[in-house]
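Lecture notes, unit on protein representations.

Consider one protein chain, 366 amino acids long.
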Amino acid sequence: MRFVGGAVRDTFLGRPIKDIDAACRHHPQVTMKLLERSGIKVVPTGIAHGTVTAVLDDETIEITTLRSDVETDGRHAKVAFTEDWQQDASRRDFTFNALYLSSCGEIFDPFGGIADLEAGRVRFIGVAEERILEDALRIMRFFRFHAWYGAGALDDEGLAACQKHIALLESLSGERIRDELIKIFAASDPLASLCAFVDIGGVDVLKLGPVNTARLKTYIAREQRRQLAPDPILRLACWLSVKRGDVKALASHLRFSNKERSRLHAALEGLSVAPLQSPSQLRALYYRFGRDAAHIAVMAGDEEPSDLYFDVLDNWQVPTLPVKGGDLVALGKPEGPEISRCLRKLDMLWVESDFSLSRDDLLAQI
């Protein structure tokens, strides 16, 4: 058995390891028996495709029998089991994802993946065009991996192949596109990948509309200066030029969750008020639409934000309207719609006062 893929790649770079995958020559049924014989729990997660999951001390390792592709249709592959490590490596996407590590610490690197990692080069295994025709998602993965591991310009052959077959993105589901976009925007600096993706027509094929790369660049620069972790949803909102009324259609197209759609709405509210005029305006925005709206209004505006704005983001506690419906009933207001109308009016006055009016001040308005 050898460890393979991302765990080996990230270990070599000294990065945190997420999922651990391994490959072996044994057929999956044999793999299961060997694990069970060693007292290791095993789950047949994808046994038809050769994959079982070993569970030990709440840690999991996916172990897959060596495979070779029999046929592919651009989305799914029919595979056959093999005992040839080279064949298994040949069906993978990029050179540094075909690194194998034995339990003795020996590296099997059939395509120069380590050299590519050191050079910051994302390179398809074999002929780039053939790898893309096997699985169209590899177009998105090419840009995602460059955002995370690349340096300098994107690989010429890979970029040309992606451009030639960019229309294949239309065959992918919204969920798969969304997942890759989120991963791209989660990288420390995805700008080179995103600019190249725009240049080859990817945004047009995905029907994302015009994008604002300059605004995203400003946002990322401020994010990095303040040593903030990347926020993929807010970065995406900065990049897109979608109107507030179009968020529902975009969220449906890319299968965003309700929470992600709400965050996009809030971000667009924040973008709509930039540039900010005063800290009181920022507090009002924060109160009405939440922290995401306030955050993006500060971070994506044309003008360099002052420390006063950052003080609001970092330290301001959102207050609660000091008047309740019961207070109005006690003053003789009839229960029902009139109470709601009065509360909305008082809330508006309170926000306009920069939250300075007291409960008595507000009740005096009735």
